[in-house]
What does this fold into?
Amino acid sequence: MRLVGFVHFLQGQLNDFFEACLPETGKQFEPNGRHKLLTDVAGNYRHFWVMMDDEQEIVGTIAVTDLRYDPKYAEVMHRNSGEIKHLYLLKAFQGNGYGKKMVAFAIDQAKTFGYTWLYLESTSSNTQAIAILKMFGFEEIGRYNDNPEVNVFMRLKL
It folds into this structure.
């Protein structure tokens, strides 16, 4: 297993990954709707990585994006922050430390990007990811955006 930076020729394989992975989380891949940005990762993300197995198949993803400061949430938000996005791992590969490897890598990268805080949003049903994030020191905080599809908000001081 190895974590590699996304390159454009992986887009078709990435779409197939989301078609398989998102239903495992209770969601459907909506390439013409809420997941449209994921259909052009090279054009929409500066920092996006894929976990590849030995057969060069994508089994997981993680991204780090800039988080725009919103004074509406000044109680929990900080300037100069990043956000972990699209932390996914196929169920068949969970429980082997790959999620931890992806989160550790994202934290290290966020530090090199110069962020002082790293945020993440999720749903309470995502218990494994939340447990991993807490192992790294992420703390649950109040809401920092208006996304109605999530109900868990976390941050880490880098």
About this structure: Residues 2-157 form a domain with the Aminopeptidase fold (CATH 3.40.630.30). The longest helix spans residues 98-112. The chain has a mean pLDDT of 94. The longest strand covers residues 58-67.
